Amino acid sequence: MEGRKQEPDRSQGVGSPAPIRGVSGESSEAAELARQIEEKATSHSREPDRPASERRRRQVWNRFLFLAALAAIVLIVPLFLVGRGGEAFEVSPDELLGTWVTDDSRYADRAITVRLEELTLDLGDGVTTVHQILSIRGELGPLHRAYEITYAGPEEDEVLEVLVYDDGYVRLRNPFDVRWRRAEN
User: Fold this and answer.
1) pLDDT range class, residue 20, cuts 50, 70, 90
2) What are phi and psi of 74, to 5 degrees?
């Protein structure tokens, strides 16, 4: 046997552990332990035995959920990434210019004044804030024209969303239930 290479024992098959030979019969115990470890490792990766119809139903449901999530991402994410649509204005549109007041008793002491490049908010109790208008975007809707007035706030830029209706009234997105009218001079 000198000079000849000893060929590995392939009688166990490819990937099967070769029997461990040791002293005093440890070979069979080690082989049994190796078989149990291999069995456990492969049994966890397989799907449990289920009827084919249940597996198919589960696959269809998983595909449906994946497609629904993908559709939601494709439709909603661009709204936040791209920004809002609409036409940008250099100065405030004429229909927004002026002072706006309401007959709603909750806001009786408040007013909104829009000038070409300035927004004044009368907040009640004699408190008035004046802000520089940074940008205005407008969009024509089916029932109104929507404007986003971005102005310089005390700490960061803020947005006032205004909806202008053909009847001469204006509503803010928040609170929507209050109608504002142009103040009489």
Assistant:
1) very low
2) -65, -35
Is there a contact between 173 and 163 (Cβ–Cβ < 8 Å)? yes
The Cα–Cα gap between 113 and 57 comes to 61
Tokens 């589960």 correspond to what residue? 58
Answer yes or no: is 10 within a domain: no
Which distant-in-sequence residues (6+ apart) come within 8 Å of 113 by Cβ? 98, 99, 100, 119, 120, 121, 122
Question: Coil, strand, or helix at residue 102?
Answer: strand
Whole-angstrom CA distances from 165 to 89, 96, 116, 136 are 19, 11, 20, 17
How many domains are contained in the chain?
2
The values of phi and psi at residue 47, to 5°, are: -75, 140
Residue 25 bridge partners (DSSP)? none
Q: Residue 16 falls within a domain, yes or no?
A: no
Domain with 137, as residue range(s), is: 87-182
| Same-domain pairing of 96 and 161 | yes
Nearest Cα neighbor of 154 from 129, 134, 171 is 129
Give pLDDT tens digits for 147-184. Answer: 899 999 888 999 999 998 888 899 988 888 899 999 98
Contact residues for 124 (Cβ-Cβ < 8 A; gap 6+)? 107, 109, 110
